[in-house]
Specification:
83 residues, mainly alpha, 3 helices, 63% helix, 0% strand, DUF7219, Isopropylmalate/homocitrate/citramalate synthases
Length: 83
């Protein structure tokens, strides 16, 4: 196992196989991994709760933008409150 596989593990995608879903899944896994690191840094006192919040908020915005750019969930009949 190389260092990158250890630090940034990826799991297989089992959902509907479409390019945009696979890309979003990769983005989602990266988001989850970064959130784990931020939480660990905050828990250990390496960063403040405010800094952790701002970093997580920025990552969330990036993930939402990714979803929007990939056109995932663009159902005009949905009740998606995020739009």
């Amino acid at each position: 196992m190389n260092k990158d596989d250890f630090l940034y593990p990826r799991t297989r995608y089992y959902g509907q196989v479409k390019p945009e879903n696979i890309v979003f899944n990769a983005n989602l896994q990266e988001f989850a991994q970064k959130i784990t690191y931020i939480c660990s840094l905050e828990t250990s006192g390496k960063i403040s709760p405010e800094e952790a919040y701002h970093q997580i908020k920025a990552l969330w915005q990036q993930l939402r933008q990714s979803k929007k750019e990939l056109g995932i969930g663009d159902n005009p009949f949905s009740n998606d409150q995020e739009k």
